[in-house]
Amino acid sequence: MTNHENTQVDPVAKVTVELHLGDNLEVLSSLADSSFALIYVDPPFNTGKQQRLERISVVRDEAGERKGFGGHTYRTETRSSLAYDDTFDDYLAFLRPRLVHARRLMTDTGSFFCHLDPREVHYAKVLCDQVFGRSCFMGEIIWAYDFGGRSKKRWPQKHDTILWYVADPKNYTFNYSAMERIPYMAPGLVGKEKAARGKTPTDVWWHTIVPTNGRERTGYPTQKPLGVLRRIVNVHSLPGDRVLDFFAGSGTTGEAAASAGRNAVLIDRNPESLAVMQQRLASFAPTVRIHEGDGDAIVP
Fold first, then answer.
1. What does the DSSP 8-state code read for residue 206?
2. C-alpha–C-alpha distance, residues 26 and 21, integer Å
3. d(CA 214, CA 234)
4. For a tag site, which of 41, 80, 220, 234 has the least CB within 10 Å?
5. Cβ(162)–Cβ(99) under 8 Å?
6. Phi/psi at 107 (nearest 5 deg)?
């Protein structure tokens, strides 16, 4: 294992973010071997449904259907946001060539993270063992959250699984000093000094989902929290490293990387996704290059 002390840098001094619009399999084939210190992907979960985010707002309208504050009448508006189909006939056949590229693109001390839910993660684990090697599996992170509806027919599903692989299990980047500490659940049992310092997280991460009306929300369905990505980026890469996300969605990986002084390459086939990322990352990265497919950069 390679332990690195956290290096102080100006987070956005020399950061470059590349946004690629197109089929990630085609774009991945154009990228150079061993060029990324960290690869994180949040692929479609194969839910068999269309993933869509709807926003509901109440607007004052005297012809509306609801009575509200002050005796005024209001109407309800539902607006749909970005959407994508999350259905695959052969999910592992879809993932395999992309994972093969991910292994090729990792540096010698690099890490790969694959974020899935219980529906497909066990099958993906076997596939990742084949591609990366069972000895290169470092463990799984359970992201647990407590939000949303609760089934009355089974234990409510409130976690995702993030698989972690490395190129070399004897030599990989792990910034222990960059790991943020969390409060003790029973601070009175550990003394004032330890309670003030906090403890390091385990492989179970309690973190809320992206709040519906929070500042972080971009309107992209299945958006993952910035706090989860920041932890992965800060611990598993160094300032100046290149970070890759080829299911980039709303660009959370890009923001986590750019704000921490890492360079990022983000790939998505949805033009609306690219527009969200371009707007989101403009203030974090002084240089944002946009590419059409695997071709040359186009002017934003």
1. E
2. 10
3. 23
4. 80
5. no
6. -75, 170
**pLDDT per residue over 75-105, tens digit each?**
444 444 554 454 567 889 999 999 999 999 9
Which residues have a Cβ under 8 Å from the Cβ of 44 and sit 6 or more positions away? 51, 84, 86, 88, 247
For helices 252-259 and 226-236, the axis angle rounded to 10 degrees is 50
- How far does CA 92 lie from the centroid of its chain? 20
Q: How far is CA 136 from CA 20, 91, 128, in A?
A: 29, 23, 10
| pLDDT surpasses 90 at 205 | yes
Q: What is the largest CA-CA distance in the chain?
A: 69
Host H or E run for residue 18 = strand 16-21
Residues 103-141: tens digit of each pLDDT: 999 999 999 999 998 888 999 999 999 999 999 999 999
Question: Which pair of structure tokens corresponds to residue 273?
Answer: 């996704």
Residue 90 CB coordination number (10 Å):
9
Q: Which residues contact 241 (CB under 8 A, 6 or more apart)?
A: 36, 37, 38, 173, 262, 263
Task: Give the mean pLDDT of the chain.
Answer: 83
